[in-house]
Automatic annotation (TrEMBL):
Protein name: DNA polymerase IV
Binding site for Mg(2+): 12, 106
Residue(s) at site: Substrate discrimination: 17
GO cellular component annotations of the record: cytosol
GO molecular function: damaged DNA binding; DNA-directed DNA polymerase activity; magnesium ion binding
Membership in a protein family: Belongs to the DNA polymerase type-Y family.
Organism: Marilutibacter maris
Amino acid sequence: MSAPTRKIVHVDMDAFYASVEQRDDPALRGQPVVVAWRGARSVVCAASYEARRFGVRSAMPALRAERLCPHAVFVAPDFQRYKAVSRQVREIFARHTELIEPLSLDEAYLDVTRTKTGMPSATATAEAIRAAIREETRLTASAGVAPNKFLAKIASDWRKPDGLFVLKPHQVEAFLTPLPVGRLPGVGKVTERRLGKLGIATVGDLRTLGGEQLETMFGRWGARLHRLSLGIDDNPVEPSRPTMQVSSEDTFPDDLPLDALAPHIERLAEKTWAGYARERERDPQRIARTVVLKLKTADFRILTRSLTLPTPPEGAAALAEVACGLRERVDLPADTLYRLVGVGVSGFADADESLAQTDLFEADRGRR
């Protein structure tokens, strides 16, 4: 007997940070609002729909946003206020289901296959949630309703802002067929270009390759790609998503060469270690053994280097030492300048599992 079809809602607040600012300051309503600190090193946190008409987007350098929209109103971000509104929204979600998977402050997946309210459909639940958000926060949200998470996320973007789009199981394949292949989760620009060389531009084109050919080309990921092209995704909504990485990063006032980064790496290692310590307080059994160094060059190229250790670092100093050492794995010219550095820990696993991996590591090293 097959499992019942899930009913998933993806809720995405509309231009969240900018909308909060416009709500709280009437003078900003109707204006192209850019939430960002001014300055050469700043990036856009959010842009109102009025600013987006000029091409301003999140994560864009603030200087470029100013060039695209010279009359934009820049507002410094206030994350405490945004977090408070996010808590309000999640309280609304919780009235309907306990199966809530937050993705960020402004979006979440909800499994409403069964609800606390007994509403007749997932569509009715999504409409009720959107109405409550509008009434209680004076903000708007868009929602997508679908049989799984990745389809619900695509659907929530379909009628933005302040829209609702419902994708029923029998509509899935026809809906996906004309979409650009880049709309599938995990298909980045590199994979999209590789597929484009094969004449694969849409999800329908991808589907015609078949599972075996995709698996030959991409390994296990190819098999997942084929399933996604058919609209199949069995990943459940996970209310308690385990932490995958703890990290800190910083953008410099002036670009720096690689050999000048040590003091910044050491400072960020302390911040990361403090965050990791808080994570260990919540769950002492989960430890991280992988150290990650992130770099962004002056021309915005992003590099990451990582090292998985036989045992976790013992403190901030050890973390900094490993992260500094990872610079040796950067093979760019010596005169390359960097605008950002980040330090993180990842590879979280339960302590018992990590101990088993360490035993295997030691045994393998003894055979060499």
